[in-house]
User: What shape does this take?
Amino acid sequence: MTPLAERLRPATFDDVVGQEHILGKNGALRRIVSSPVLPNMIFYGPSGTGKTTVANIIAKNAGMTLKKLNATVAQTKDIKDVLAETGTLFGSDGILLYIDEIQYFNKKQQQTLLEFIEDGRITLIASTTENPYFYIYKAILSRSTVFEFKPLSHSAVKQALSRALDFLNSENNANKTLSEDAMTALSVSGGGDLRASVNALELAFHISENEITEESAKSVLARNYMSFDRDGDNHYELLSALQKSIRGSDENAAVFYLAKLLEGGDIISPCRRLLVIASEDIGLAYPMAATIVKSLVDSALQLGLPEARIPLAQAAILLATAPKSNSAYLAIAAAMEDITKGLGQDMPSRLKNNHCFGEGDKKDAYLYPHDYPNNWVEQQYLPDDLKDRVYYRFGNNKTERAAEEYKKIIRGANKK
Assistant: This one.
């Protein structure tokens, strides 16, 4: 039997829940579709947010021949078969080609479309759950308008669930009700994916008597569904949110995004990111953070989930509440930039291993710092073309200010 989400697929924009930012009365997509010229479009967003539904509505209103391809299973031959129809009677009014999950087409397959998009024989609507700026051929991207579909709010999902319940009652000549707790459980379970929530409602409907309770709703949900793909954008966005929250000293947000990553079953990525943050964002403001986080990460990996959440939460909170400095990160980045420019090719002679060539008595011989007061003596270490370069700048925190003061003291004392 066709899934409920498919049987309920909206036929007009007014029936689509959510996406008001593009489908509302003044939404950009709605206004563009109403114009005489239909552009090529790319729909970007999580699963179950209405991308395919909107494409179907556009095709219906455009009066064009609609062809659909799913890039997860389609091959180059399938693309060519569609393109061949552009010169036939079927394509006389133009062909609207909808490609779902276009990120699964390789560059060559995407390039096949370019000529037909260029001369207007095909109008392309492509959907993707991945960032189109990373996965879609640049020439196609530059000829398309990108629209972002956002995860649906709980209120939007509840609206659709109420409509779905009415449909099921009518279809089955029933009069079942849905408790508020069950409604909440089903709306949350989809993680913004309407299709998942609606299909779960259908299962709960058929196993319930007169009322769909929270218990019966949860019985068809193994666990809360999350849009989580370890190789996809959502994964990297969560990692980015974790790091930016820690960098911004928001321990509550840091724990939240860590929890989302762990709920998705990932432990390795958060561990690696926390280790990086300890040196990139806290760094020399609190050098012990790197050691402590390494210990907590080791504990987490040894414990495994679910217990690993405890030391990892400790690490995230420690980093978020610690003083911040990116001075080490900036220093190495600046040095590497000079290296990529080809600077500093030849180091000073005094730094080379020249003792075996009898060069130790030269005026530029290496001076052993431990032979001098405060274990410091002035001499040039950087190559001649970089001798005045400053890569590291002391951060404005207690630890680095103390290091800066120490530097001034030993250098000042030796110059007296």
Q: What stands out?
A: The beta strands are 40-44, 65-70, 95-100, 122-128, 144-148, 177-178, 211-212.
